[in-house]
Amino acid sequence: MKKKLYDLAHSRAGDKGNTLILSLIPYDEADYPLLCEKVTPDAVKHHLKEIVLGEIIRYEMPNLASLQFVCHQALLGGVTTSLSMDTHGKSLSYAFLQMEIEV
Amino acid sequence: MIRIGSGAGFSGDRLEPAVILAEKGELDYLVLECLAERTIALAQQRKNRDPNSGYDPLLEKRIDLLLPILKEKKIRLITNMGAANPIGAAKKIMEMAKRKGIHIKVAAVTGDDVLEHLDGQQEVLETGKPLSKLSNLLSANAYIGADALLPALESDAEIIIAGRVADPSLFLAPMIYHYGWSVDDLDKIAQGTVVGHLLECAGQLTGGYFADPRKKEVPDLARLGFPFADVGPDGTAVIGKVEGTGGFINLATVKEQLLYEATDPTGYLTPDITADFTTVRLREIGSNQVEVSGGRGRPKPATLKVSLGYHTGYVGEGEISYAGPNAYSRAVLAGEIIQERLKDQFPDLRIDHIGVSSVHRTYFGELREPYEIRLRVAANATDSENAAIIGEEVEALYTNGPAGGGGARKYVREVIGIVSTLIPREKVQTQISIQEC
């Protein structure tokens, strides 16, 4: 069965220059291993292919039962010079949560 | 134990949460973090026009509300509202205090402005090119650390006003001062930095920027309470807020904020430390109370980051809406018309369909015909006259474009770009200057 990340976890987006930072925090800490297994950098890169042009690095944080994704070349140049509507990419946490995984 | 409150998370933040914290929070220190990357470049621009300005635009409003309470409750204020002119900000505060008949001692912290120390050889981190290639440099501010605030704390100044201090350092400084931590005590400095990082965005720790109806409900966001931390001698802290205020604090809100903007959670860089968030432990110990401990540190970076503001021209924007049957196709047609007319003159022309794909720059799943849609066009231009063409062309869709266009708006704004470079620490000398009345 496929499930959206939105049903399992929450996320906040941050930005540094042209880099987008996405957290992934399961509502139930018991789902952390499942997210580690399914939400790989490659899978996220595939999901966000229209948005993230560069490399995606994933940090595992078992102490917080959370994942952090650092996505390079993702903000059309960055907050100060981007022509995008959402120059910070703040709304992109919900683009991420649209991703589906097999559970 | 000391209690440090966070009364603002950005320049434009709400005013009254800081007042509530000061009145009812039993604080030792109140911190107001009001400086984003671009804010200081804009402040420098104002200072260039008027040497007495260049501090935070809301300084007077915030100080007017807070000054009598700070004095009465003996709370010390630490803020980066000095922006490009901490001394000018201190003078303004003295002026206000005199008018109110309040005796006050203010310390201005300067030295973050390093524009004079740059010789053009420094590498711009974002482009890899030397700084001299960047025309129209407007401001250069080094991120200074908690050490720059310590002389001001030792001076007994009641208000400490600085410019580009790194956000977590504003909170770390009173911990170092109060407990006499060595700046080489890496784990304490790291743990204090973790607490500072959690507090720096104020309401984002107490349920602000968190709510999602039916999924993540947050009570009473209209009266969101801002956080404070009770920090113990080893840096272990309990995050709380004033009873009766809106929002909440739990593991979920604290996790979201801890990870916010951390480009490397194994090595979060500040002027004070390289902090490891992967050792942090969080524990809910009561209603709206989360204990934070366990941050570990490695030595601070050898260089300081410098934020560089530069003029990069103008942006022109235009918007127009379509609604009802076939609205999306009419908006798409309008965009195609603009594209055909402007693409040669504005090669980076951006066309967005608000209501479909404007903020994510794409959409996921199946596209359903929206009831209404807004076309938005934007492009860069070297001057404001050329930038204005974008809005003018969108407005002209009224009589030259698809049927039923309405609500056209046009905007032109100047763009200040921000990039960064690194500078050796020894090139940055900070000072304090005291004013008293």
UniProtKB/TrEMBL annotation, chain A:
Stored InterPro entries: AtuA-like_ferredoxin_dom
Domain AtuA-like ferredoxin-fold stretches: 4-102
A Pfam family of this chain: AtuA_ferredoxin
Protein name per Swiss-Prot or TrEMBL: AtuA-like ferredoxin-fold domain-containing protein
Organism in which the protein naturally occurs: Ammoniphilus resinae
Lineage of producing organism: Bacteria, Bacillati, Bacillota, Bacilli, Bacillales
From TrEMBL, chain B:
Acyclic terpene utilisation N-terminal domain location: 2-433
Domain of life of the organism encoding this protein: Bacteria
Protein name listed in UniProt: Acyclic terpene utilisation N-terminal domain-containing protein
